[in-house]
């Protein structure tokens, strides 16, 4: 368990306690215009508990509790995001290390280097002579060598017309 995890746990506990105290402060406050949650304990619950003029003190504590709630929430969000990224980086480095140790075992020790591939253009290759058919029986045709047909250069395809 790291220090960051311990600090996140401690701040989460403080946030939960802050929420409980903040709920209590909101419920105990004097209602404005005789309405609100303060009426649940009676109209003078804050005066009975904390004395006359306690409305301003409890209102101030409520403001401080609200600010601390928001601050703790933001700090915890940033800390948890940082911790999650650190865990993700740790997992990524572990996977990379495992793949590097597994890669040499998969490659054979004496692998021959493959010959480079040469690509030929079928248009520039000489045409094969057509196969000669045997002469009909009874006639002796002289054997003439077949000449390859003349190849003409292929013109490039015209460019497409621009769309209006």
The rough form would be described as elongated
Please report the number of helical segments.
3
Distance between the termini: 67 Å
Give helix and strand order, one letter per element, not per position.
HHH
Q: What would the average pLDDT be, to the nearest integer?
A: 74
Helix content: 40-55%
Low-confidence runs (pLDDT<50, min 5 residues)? none
- Give the percentage of residues in beta strands: under 5%
| Rg over C-alpha atoms, rounded to the nearest angstrom | 44 Å
Biggest sheet features: none
Structural class: mainly alpha
Please tally the β strands and state the result: 0
Task: Give an overview of the whole structure.
The protein is mostly helical. The protein has helices at 3-28, 45-50, 54-106. Helix 1 packs antiparallel against helix 3. The longest helix is centred in the middle third of the chain and has 53 residues, at 54-106. The relative contact order is 0.08. The model has no long low-confidence stretch (mean pLDDT 74).
Keywords summarizing the entry:
164 residues; mainly alpha; 52% helix; 3 helices; single chain; elongated
Question: Could you give a quick summary of the protein structure above?
Answer:
The chain is mainly alpha-helical and 164 residues long. 52% of the residues lie in helices and 0% in strands.
What's the helix and strand layout?
Blueprint: H1 3-28, H2 45-50, H3 54-106
């Amino acid at each position: 368990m790291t220090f960051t995890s311990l600090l996140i746990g401690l701040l989460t506990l403080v946030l939960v306690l802050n929420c409980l105290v903040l709920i209590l402060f909101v419920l105990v406050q004097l209602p404005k215009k005789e309405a609100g949650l303060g009426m649940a304990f009676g109209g003078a619950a804050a005066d009975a508990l904390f004395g006359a003029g306690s409305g301003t003190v409890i209102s101030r504590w409520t403001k401080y509790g609200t600010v601390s709630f928001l601050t703790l929430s933001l700090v915890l969000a940033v800390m948890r995001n940082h911790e999650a990224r650190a865990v993700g980086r740790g997992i990524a480095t572990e996977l990379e290390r495992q793949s590097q140790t597994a890669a040499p075992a998969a490659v054979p020790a004496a692998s021959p280097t493959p010959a480079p591939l040469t690509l030929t253009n079928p248009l520039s290759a000489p045409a094969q002579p057509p196969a000669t058919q045997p002469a009909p029986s009874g006639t002796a045709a002289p054997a003439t060598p077949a000449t390859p047909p003349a190849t003409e250069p292929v013109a490039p395809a015209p460019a497409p017309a621009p769309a209006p």
